[in-house]
Write a structure and sequence with these properties.
The protein has one domain: Maltoporin, Chain A (Beta Barrel). It is 4% helix and 57% strand. It has five helices and 31 strands. Strand 8 and strand 9 form a beta hairpin.
């Protein structure tokens, strides 16, 4: 077990809009607090990053505290949010109006949070407001608003964060920023880096290829055009170098272990926009142009002096515009949103043979692909005394053009795929247009402060990802394409209640999601001829359902000291084969006791109890996992104003205190994984935050 404790590393960079103000909000058990923090009847939960004592560097770090969010993890870097039985195939991720995973399910963790104010987390089908793919939830990342003063003289503000991990997880994070502004102008820059070594599991064993490092830089400029409006320009650049421990596999032919690395993931994003509070009877007017360029690497390497084996890259280029506004009318708040986006994807692959690289060529699956989307969304929030109603409708026109690169002759020549499957390996280009209509409606009534029941119904649709339909870059023939996949559609219903009785508060949700043409990865029953590996394929299930429950309750034991319990239960049913769906998280119970204060000492003791998962998909080849219990402890002290600093916070955390050996069910548990490492053993961190 590592016992090294390094000094906190910090680096001067700049803040993308204004200095991060850190508070650990004092918890006031009131109706307002319940609305802002806990109510599952709200369409979304907003995570305000400035309220975190330890500043999260990534989106996944920020989402970890939400009891209804899990993660499908391939590595510490390459993880995706998982909500109500679905990962990125049902949980789109947006930066403002720009969706990152419309055409593929690559890692959406490739952006830092130094320029981010808050993150909105949606639960359930939200196609009416967010469009294609919001089958079980969505994540929307929001930028900070620029700060303007009431003086012509320039002012300076900024922040500094440093975090050092130790014990099983050794590495550091540092972010810093500053902003220069007056009454009409704001110029800000910010950035951050982190660097983590291979972690150790509960046995003290090093998990090979689990190291990663990232860095990000942001710059923005805003100009005030009136008392309630401004224009802005923003640039983001993010890079990552990571490896994937779950891809470690033994190659009998070469007598070597291989693994996948991603040494040069890079994203560049550009935003131009205009915001105005009021105009011609409209409020909250927002116009934005966005552009994003992403580069992903997937390199297969050997544990040998000559590491090179195969290199694959995927590039995507996205651009678009979004316009939104609202209008207040009597008891109504009308909402309008219109958007256009265009994502183009290309790729390349080459192999290392006889001491040199072969020329780049298009990877098996697709040569290139393009998705264009035009979306219109209308909504109405109605408040009539204690009755609240929300209705929304969305129309989206989606066009997909794909140049296929399914190479049947290659499969035949290599003799990888049995003759019975060769009929699936055909080359057909795609030129499709889909008209998608989505609706949602929520109704609730405050019977009393102790009981506010609600009901929500909604639906959403998505087109198949390129990897699902074309089997892009199949691993030695272990995935065959299915170019006949249909769109997936879901209808969902939520029912629950929120309430508060004195110092006791609670929120509940029970949900049922019925899928038509659910897209599932299944075992074909065949194996590759040369390597005897199971061959899989994405297919449509005529019917599938996912249902479950979410519950959180709390009690103020003493002043500012709270006991809370949170529970999630998820089940998925493959109706076509009458068995469980694959990749469904086990039930989980979280217990915590915490003191939360704006100034002074705050602490939390948390126990997470996760059940075993033996309801697995045999047609997928999924494997069972055991249950486990983890104990975490965190401590922080907020000093308030200290000398030149407006705020200063020092924090400490210790996770998996009893050094448990465990494996998360959603971490690559399919039968095609040959090396299933355990998760991080006992690990801690010290963090510092200051703002000026």
């Amino acid at each position: 077990m590592k016992l090294k404790l390094s000094l906190i590393v910090t680096q001067v960079c700049i803040s993308a809009t204004f200095a991060q103000d850190v508070h650990i909000e004092e918890i006031d058990i009131s109706e307002n607090q319940l609305i802002n923090v806990n109510r599952l009847s709200d369409e979304k939960k907003t995570i305000t990053l400035k309220e975190e004592a330890v500043k999260p560097l990534s989106m996944n770090d920020a989402l970890k505290k939400e009891f209804y969010v899990d993660f499908k993890k391939s590595s510490e870097y390459e993880s995706e949010p998982y909500i109500r039985g679905r990962g990125n195939k049902g949980v789109p991720v947006f930066i403002e109006g720009m969706r990152l995973n419309a055409g593929h399910d690559d890692s959406t963790n490739l952006f830092g949070l130094t320029d981010i104010a808050d993150i909105e987390v949606y639960r359930g089908a939200n196609g009416a407001k967010l469009g294609m793919g919001a089958m079980s939830g969505a994540v929307v990342v929001k930028f900070k608003e620029p700060t303007f003063s009431d003086k012509k003289e320039l002012e300076l503000s900024g922040f500094l964060n440093g975090k050092q991990s130790f014990l099983s997880k050794d590495g550091y994070t540092t972010t810093m920023g500053a902003s220069l502004y007056n009454d009409t102008f704001n110029f800000s820059v910010s950035g951050g880096i982190n660097d983590y070594a291979n972690y150790e599991d509960g046995n003290g064993d090093e998990v090979l290829h689990s190291l990663y490092d990232t860095n990000n830089f942001n710059a923005s400029m805003s100009v005030k055009t009136s008392e309630d409006s401004y224009v802005y320009a923003r640039y983001m650049r993010d890079k990552a170098d990571s490896q994937d421990p779950y891809t470690r596999a033994y190659n009998a032919a070469s007598d070597l272990w291989t693994y996948t690395s991603r040494p040069n993931d890079e994203g560049k994003s550009y935003f131009l926009g205009f915001k105005k509070e009021q105009f011609a009877g409209l409020i909250n007017i927002d116009i934005q142009y966005f552009k994003n360029q992403m580069h992903y690497d997937y390199f297969i390497e050997r544990e040998d002096a000559i590491k090179d084996q195969q290199q694959l890259f995927r590039d995507s280029d996205t651009h678009g515009v979004k316009l939104s506004a609202q209008k207040a009318l009597d008891h109504h708040l009308l909402g309008f949103s219109a958007s256009y986006s265009d994502m183009y994807i290309s790729n390349g692959v080459r192999r290392f043979q006889a001491g040199s690289w072969t020329p780049w060529q298009s990877a098996f699956g697709i040569t290139e692909g393009e998705i264009k989307s035009q979306m219109l969304s209308l909504s109405d929030d109605i408040q009539l005394d204690k009755l609240f109603v929300n209705v929304a409708a969305g129309y989206e026109r989606v066009k997909r053009d794909v140049t296929s690169n399914i190479n049947s002759s290659k499969f035949i020549a290599d003799g990888r795929v049995p003759a019975a499957l060769l009929g699936e390996i055909v080359r057909e280009n795609t030129n499709e247009k889909d008209d998608l209509l989505s609706l949602s409606a929520t109704i609730g009534y405050e019977v009393s402060p102790a009981f506010t029941p609600y009901l929500k119904i909604s639906n959403a649709t998505r087109t198949p990802y390129f990897n699902e339909q074309y089997g892009n870059n199949p691993n030695m023939g272990t995935q065959v394409p299915n170019q006949d996949l249909d769109n997936e559609e879901v209808y969902g219903a939520d029912i629950g209640a929120d309430g508060q009785m004195g110092k006791f508060y609670y929120t509940t949700a029970a949900y049922y999601q019925k899928y038509k043409d659910y897209i599932e990865l299944v075992n074909t029953g065949y194996v590759t001829n040369s390597t005897n590996l199971p061959i899989k394929q994405f297919i449509n299930l005529d019917e599938a359902v996912i249902y479950g429950a979410e519950l959180m309750m709390g009690f103020e034991v003493f002043e500012n000291i709270f006991a809370e319990a949170a529970y999630t239960y998820t089940r998925g049913k493959n109706k076509e084969h009458n068995e469980p769906l694959a990749y469904i998280t086990p039930q989980k119970l979280t217990l915590s006791l915490a003191q939360r204060q704006k100034i002074g000492l705050s602490w939390e003791i948390k126990q997470e109890l996760v059940d075993n998962q033996n309801k697995v998909s045999s047609v997928n080849g999924e494997v069972e996992t055991s249950g486990y219990g983890l104990t975490d402890f965190s401590l922080s002290y907020a000093f308030g104003k200290v000398g030149l600093f407006k705020e200063a916070t020092l924090a400490f955390e210790l996770n998996n205190i009893f050094d448990k050996r465990y494996r998360e069910h959603l971490s690559k548990v399919s039968s095609t994984s040959y090396y299933l490492p355990n998760e991080v053993g006992i690990n801690g961190a010290i963090a510092l935050h200051v703002s000026f």
